[in-house]
Amino acid sequence: MALDATTLDALLDTIRRFVDERLRPLESLVAREDRIPEEIVAQMRELGLFGMTIPEEYGGLGLSTEEECRAVMELGRTSPAFRSVIGTNNGIGSQGLVMDGTPEQKSRYLPKMATGEIIGSFALTEPEAGSDAGSLTTSARSRGNGFVINGTKRYITNAPQAQLFTVFARTDPETSGARGVSAFLVDASTKGISLGPSNRKMGQQGAHVCDVVFDECYVPESALLGGRANLNKGFQTAMKTLDRGRLHIAALAVGCADRLIEDSVRYAIERKQFGEPIAQFQLIQAMLADSRTEAYASRCMVLDAAKRRDVGETVTMLASCCKLFASEMVGRVADRAVQIFGGAGYMEEYGIERFYRDVRLFRIYEGTSQIQQTLIARQMVRDARG
């Protein structure tokens, strides 16, 4: 159920002030130390940010897709690493459970995910299965009253902090491709799970990623997401989860673009060359105008697709359109920001170079730009054929 306008405005205002007053001053510290201060995580819990998309009956805020996107746009106005702390609990780490979990699974996990007591993580990607997720080789063999999981998951966001993994494994070895894959809810403390070292990344310091290795990891049948009725249907759960997740990332890209544009305009007004602010130069104005136009177009796309999803429309193709356009857009905005700042944009102290590196990931995770192009085109062909 959507929030009333007054409540939503109050929430967005609270997030905006939290970003401006608490998060922005810590951006350099987080990048330098590669960690989010515990007091910030605690404040995120108090604000209910871990449970924005979790239904109210389980202690969350129960935001609609549109409301979530508006909130994420506010969070995008600071380093993306802050958003990453709560991102999996609101997106791919929880939504499979929200959509397809059994009543018992929802009651067990969702209340603690809403408070941030449990951090969820989405374990799909493997060393040889990224864009081609249907080729995953992690196996879940039936044994007794449960399953034994073996395999390695790669680049798993929030894995070092996670208490719960949604693990995708092949339960039907005779079936290739996306079919024959099931999803499991696996406690991180389960015997047979080990974590690789945190990956050192191009950007987004403070957001942690590592491999997760399953070695004869036994889980009871109750760990099967959705129960027996969902056996060999885990890939459908993953794809439904990604629809909302791609809109989330697109909204984040819009927020980051807004921040970059804001910083660029301020710098262009303050920086003088040839005796006047560079904001007076037409070629600088052109870059600012292009950035604002593209960011506005992305915002409109995201909110339109989110509204459509909220009224029950299938938005798989539209979500891909949003993810493709917004993630590419913010890359162009970041590049122009570096150019507008000139030499200062290349220096660490201004933070522009950090955003330039941070937003580069948006074109890769939750499906690369090329995968989005493929999905969009395939749907167009299917629609044309009827």
In short:
The chain has 386 residues and is α+β, with helices and mostly antiparallel strands. It is built from twelve helices and nine strands.
Written account of the structure:
There is one protein chain. The model has no long low-confidence stretch (mean pLDDT 94). The protein has a four-stranded antiparallel beta sheet, with no helix packed on it. Strands 1-4-5 form a three-stranded mixed beta sheet. The longest helix has 37 residues, at 234-270. The two termini are 34 Å apart. It is built from twelve helices and nine strands. The protein is an alpha+beta fold and 386 residues long.
What class, by secondary structure content? alpha+beta
Number of domains: 3
Kindly state the percentage of residues in helix.
40-55%
Please, what is the average pLDDT? 94
Q: Rg to the nearest angstrom?
A: 21 Å
Q: Assign the CATH class of the largest domain.
A: Mainly Alpha
Defining key terms:
386 residues, alpha+beta, Butyryl-Coa Dehydrogenase, subunit A, domain 1, Butyryl-CoA Dehydrogenase, subunit A, domain 2, Butyryl-CoA Dehydrogenase, subunit A, domain 3, 3 domains, four-stranded antiparallel sheet, three-stranded mixed sheet, 9 strands, 14% strand, globular
